[in-house]
Amino acid sequence: MSDVKPTDSQSHPNSELWDEVVSWLQHNWDPNLSVDEWWQAVAKAGWTAPHLSAEQGGRGLTRRSPTTVRSAFAAHGSLRPPGGLGLLMAAPTILTHGTPDQIARHVPPILEGQSAWCQLFSEPGAGSDLAGLTTRAQRDGDTWIITGQKVWSSQARESDHGMLLARTDLSVAKHAGISWFAFPLDQPGVTIRPLREMTGDAVFNEIFLDGAVCSDSDLIGGEGNGWAVTQTTLHFERTGIGAGGAHAGFPAPGPKGGNLGRRAGDAALDPIPGNNLALSLADILELARSSPRGRDPLVRQKVAKLVTFTETGQWNALRGKAEAARGGGQGVANIGKLAQTRIMKLAADIALDILGPDALLTAPDGSQGGRFAQAFVFSPASSIYGGTDEIQRNVVAERSLGLPREPVPDKGAPFGEVLRRMGVLTSLGSGQRTDGDQPTDRRDH
Known about the structure:
By secondary structure, this protein is of the alpha+beta class.
């Protein structure tokens, strides 16, 4: 039975869509279904990604419709649609650049929560300069043999596939010799090692690839076109995590997430994973109103600034939606990512101002289970993931404002020649790790 109050629809900016979702849930929500069965029903109805066209598995609604849909699911007490990085980045990238066969094989499992994805972009020697990556993919008939190392891959241990960037040609300039693969993680030659963070969690991982394989049929966008495909992936990532973007981190998809066989009604009661890592404007307003420190003029000034950042972030998201409809919006996505960083850091700073030393206490002694301490130590990560703040500012300056680029050494030179000058080419393609590190906590697939 629905617990949606009449005011829920009336107070929501898209009440017509809200009512449509609630009506569907009243006729279809069955808490006794398995998560697997429920998510398949949700995907079949087009609610997982309602902003996609009907042909792509959605309902042809606006870019912001997923926010309304997921809010209505939560208010109804139903298990939310599946999410994750596959929905945020992999599916829209494959829909943009993939063949009909690739779309048919990879997108439906993402929409149905059957497959989890991670991002295999950054490397120990290619972080800010992503195009300098040295992971190699060498063709062997209809198969690619892949050797190299990736790092900072969120949720790799829980994922089934990776969005892999690898170098397929050393004889051309570095941006031209990269390809984008839909890479299966469960195979020999793949070692995943968790990286412990100062939050105490190990969301990030490093991945070692020693002769792993990927079918040529999973090369997305064509050989050597990986940089263009990557720009699509990064656009969807920055749009999604920027201020005003839809949250994609809902119940963990895929068999490794441990949800598919559970009773849907039980899974619906789980807290949203990672929900304590970020503080919303509503969290800070509630905290300020409940504490005498909330009346301090300096605290109030910071809260006002947070309100301003949040509102302008929402306006920027609407601007991005309008420009995306005209085929642009890349610079707006970068601004949105910067806005999200400001909001996360300022919100954590205000919480510490209000709570004082108590804000640094972790569970079980800290306020609200130690969530403010967790949010504070996590907040610096917002300047790094999805591209550092410096990268975002460079993109805005060069692509949106038209400012001159910094001089690029070896621009246009064959990347293999650049690596020879650096003395590192001999280690590539040999099947050896370039950092000389041997993992002690192995997870071989």
